[in-house]
Amino acid sequence: MASVRNKVNPLLIPYVLTWRRFGFRTICSGRTGFAPSTSPSFADADTPPVAGKKVLETFAEEFEIGSRKITLETGKIARFANGSVVLAMDETKVLSTVASSKGDAARDFLPLTVDYQEKQFAQGVIPTTYMRREGAPKERELLCGRLIDRPIRPLFPSGFYHEVQVMASVLSSDGKQDPDVMAANASSAALMLSDIPWGGPIGVIRIGRISGQFVVNPSMDELSISDLNLVYACTRDKTLMIDVQAREISEKDLEAALRLAHPEAVKYLDPQIRLAAKAGKQKKEYKLSMVSERTFEKIENLAKEPIEAVFTDPTYGKFERGEALEKITQDVKRALEEEGDEEGLKILPKTVDTVRKQVVRRRIISEGLRVDGRRLDEVRPLYCEAGNLPVLHGSALFSRGDTQVLCTVTLGAPGDAQRLDSLVGPSSKRFMLHYSFPPFCTNEVGKRAGLNRREVGHGTLAEKALLAVLPPEDDFPYTVRINSEVMASDGSTSMATVCGGSMALMDSGIPLREHVAGLSVGLVSEVDPSTGEIKDYRILTDILGLEDHLGDIDFKIAGTRNGVTAIQLDIKPAGIPLDIVCECLDPALKGRLQILEHMEREISAPRIQDDRYSPRLVTLKYSNDALRRLIGPVGALKRKIEEETGARISVSDGTLTIVAKNQSVMEKVQEKVDFIIGREIEIGGIYKGIVTSVKEYGAFVEFNGGQQGLLHISELSHEPVSRVSDVVSVGKQLSLMCIGQDVRGNIKLSLKATLPRPKSKTHISVDEPVAPASPEVNVWAAIEDVSNEQEKEVADAGPETSESTLKSATPAVLIRSAAECDEEEKSAGLNSKGDNGSKSPPKFDKKTRMSSSFLESSFSSRNAKSKRGKDAILDLLSDDESEQKHTSEAGLHSKIGSDKNDATTETPMSANKLKLGMKVTAKVHQIRALGLVLDLGGGIRGMYRFEPGAKRDFEVGDELRVKCSSFSTKGVPVLSLVKEE
C-alpha cells in the first residue's frame, strides 16, 4: 500500500478543485492557471516534478431552432483570437474567429476580409490533389465567404476603417447540414465576443419548402427535394440580406417565406447576447475617421451647385457624367490647395462622394426624377439578338441601356461535368455559368488573374436563375457551359447575364420550359436623424451603376412569367424593414414582364440547329467486357478515337455516351466503335466489314467488332455472278446488309441488298432497300432536325412491337429474306390470282407449309429493307408517289397465306391474333390529311391511307370494315377497306 502512495500524489486533486482559491483569472482576461505538481510542505526532496493539469474554462449556450439542437461554445479552441466561437448542429461543427489590426492606417473604406474554409479532414478524407493538400479557395468557399460578409459589413460603425479578418472553418461534417449558415451565425457570435465595435448580433436562417410546406433549417436531403432554398439574415427588426434559389415560386409565396424566416432568425440573437455577457470582452475605443462639420460644409459649398447641374442634365452618358464630376472634384481640390487646407485635401474624395449622394437622393425623393431622366418604374431601352455567332452551339447579345452582355453556350459530354469537392451537396454539376467582367467594359486598364469573388458571385446568381427551367437530366444528358462576357457595364450585369443566357440556351436548341429574365431594384430612403427610422423612401426599377452606388439596396430578382427563380439582396445601411423589402417585389415583376416580351419576340422556342454546327449526343448500351475492349490498355484506344475524330467519349457502367460536333463526326465515331466492339445485330442493318477469305460459294467477312458473316455468291449482285473473286477480294471493305441466319447459325450478309435494284419487268413493284437506322439510341430530340410533332404523330400510330434482332444464338423463328420467300413459294407451286389467273386458294404441302408468324417475320424483314421505323408510317400518310407500290405489295401479301386468312373475326383483338388478310371492324380514331388512324380494339391501332377517288368524308367514331394488308417495320397494321358485295 505504501508503494502505491509513493507513485500517486495525493494532493493533486485538492489543488485542482480549489482553482479559484488561488485567485486565477478566467479565460475572458486571457490568463489561465496551472495546478502545482508538488507542495513544498509535503513533497519529498527526492520526488521528481510532475506536470500540472491545465484547466480550460468554457462557456456554452444551447437552444433549439426548427427541431434542431444548436450549441454555441467559447473558451476551448482558438483562445488567442479576439473572438472565437464553435457552433454545433448535430455532428457538424464550425469554428469562427475574428481579429483586427492595431494600427491606424489612413483609409477611406472598411478593409473587411471574410475567409471560409472546407478542409477534407472534416469528413475523414485525404485530398486527391498531387500534394495531398487543399489548394486555392474553391468556388463554394468564395460563395460562403460572401454569404457571411454581406450581412455583417453594414453593421460596422461609420468611420471604422481598421482592418478586420473573419475566418470560418469546418471542423467536422456529417453531411446532413450545410455549414454555410452555421458559419454566418458563428461569425456573428465571435464579433459579439470581441472588443471590435459592431452593431450586431445577427441571425441567419435557411428556409425550404417541401410539398407546399415550409421547413426551417432543412437538412441536405430535405433541401434536395425542396423547391425553395432561402437564406435570410436580419437584426431584431430589420432585414440585412436575402439569397434565394427557387423553382418559379410566386411573389405571394415568397413573401410568406420571408415573413416566416424573420422570427426564426431572431431566435439566434438572445443566445449570442447571453454568451457575450458571460465571456465577452469590453468593446475597445477605436479611432473613427470622421469628417469635421466645418470641412464638410466648406467642400459642400464648393461642389454642390456644379454637381446638381450635372445630375439634372439627362443628356449626359455614363462616361460624360463621370468626366464632368471628376472635373468638379479637381476644381474643389485647386481651391483647397490655394487655401492650404490639408485636412480637406486628405478627405476630399470621400466628402465629394457624400455630397453627390445627398444631391441624387434628395432629387429622387422630392421630385421623383432620376439622373438619366427616367421615371422611377421605367426600364431602360432593350436590344436582343439571338444566334449572332452561328458557328457556336448557341449565342445571344443582350443590351439594357448601356449595359451589354454577350452569352455563348457550349454543349459537352456527361464526362465534362464539373467535379465538386465540397463537404455537402452533389459531387458534380452538369450546368455551369461562368461570368467575366473584363476591364474594357468600364474603359479601364486592369489585370486578369485567378478567381474573382465578384465574378464568382454574379455567375452563380445567374446560374441559379437559369437552373430552374432546364429539362431533367434523363431528357437532357448534355453538360452545358454558358460563358457570359460583359461588353459594357452600367448596372445589373448579372441580371443581363440571366436574360442573355436564357436566349442563348434557346438558340442552342435546349428545350427550356420558360424564358428567364431579371433586373435590379433600388431604394432611396430619407432617415430621421433622431430616431434612425425611415420616414420617406422611393423604389427604383432597373437601377444604373451610379444609383446602385448612391442608393440603399441592390435587389436583384430573376424569374419567369410564373414566378421567381433567384434573388440576391445586398443592403448598405444597417438594415431595411421587411415591409419595404416585400414592397419591392411588385415593381420587379412588372419590369421583368416587359423584358420577357422583348426576349420572346426575338426567340420564343428552341431553335432547330444546322447539321454543320449542331452537336450530337448518343447513348449506347454495351456489356462491360465490350466497353473494356473499347477503352483499351490505360485508355489508349479511347484517347486515340477522340484525337482522330475530335469527339468526346464517356464510359460508365454498361453505358457509352458519345458527343460529336456534328452528324458527320458522329458517324465517324460510331463507325470506329462498331468496328471495335460491334453492336447488336438486327435484320436489315447495314454494317461495314472486311473480306477475310474468298471461297467458291462466297466470301467470309469480318464485321461488327470481330464477328464473321457469310456473303453467299447469290448475294453479290442482282446480276448472275460466275466467280466470287470477280466481285470481291481479300481485304476489301464493303457495306453489307444482314439478311438473317442459315440453319448452321452463320450470319448471312448481302451486298446486292445495298445496291440499287434494276427495273423489274413484272407488275409487282417492290421498293429498293434502304439502310435502316443504327441501333435505337437515346438522342436528345431538340438538337436533331426531327420535329417533336413528327415524333408524336408516329407515337400515336399504335403500339410498336420490337423489331426482330439477331443474337449470337440461333433464333426461334427462321428469318428469311423476301427473295427467299418468293423462291420457296415458286418451288412449292404457290400461285396467286395475280400470277396465273387461278381463283383457287393457295395450297401447301407438308414440306412447304408456312405459319402466319413466319409470314409476319418475312414481311417485317422485307419492310425493314424498304423503309425505316418511323419513316414507314410518315410515308404512308404523305408520299403519293408510293401509292402504287404500296397497293401492289399489300395485294401480294394479302394472297399469300393459309385458308384461315379470309376468315373474319369478332373476338376481342390482340396483337397475336391479327394476321395478314384478316377482316375486322374498326373505329376511326383520328383523321389525318392523307389517311386515318383506326382503332381495332384491344389497344391496337392501324393506319389506312386514302385511295384516289375513294371516300374521304369520315368522322371520328365511324365504324369501318377493313382488312389487314401488311405490317410496318415497327409492327403497325396497314389496313385497306373491304368492299361490300
UniProtKB/TrEMBL annotation:
Domain of life: Eukaryota
Key word DNA-binding present: no
Chain intervals with Polar residues compositional bias: 829-839
Reactions mediated catalytically: RNA(n+1) + phosphate = RNA(n) + a ribonucleoside 5'-diphosphate
GO MF assignments: 3'-5'-RNA exonuclease activity; polyribonucleotide nucleotidyltransferase activity; RNA binding
Keyword presence, Signal: no
Domain S1 motif: 684-752
SMART domains documented for this protein: S1 (SM00316)
Entries under CDD domains matching the protein: KH-I_PNPase (cd02393), RNase_PH_PNPase_1 (cd11363), RNase_PH_PNPase_2 (cd11364)
Protein name in UniProt: Polyribonucleotide nucleotidyltransferase 2, mitochondrial
Source lineage: Eukaryota, Viridiplantae, Streptophyta, Embryophyta, Tracheophyta
Gene: PNP2
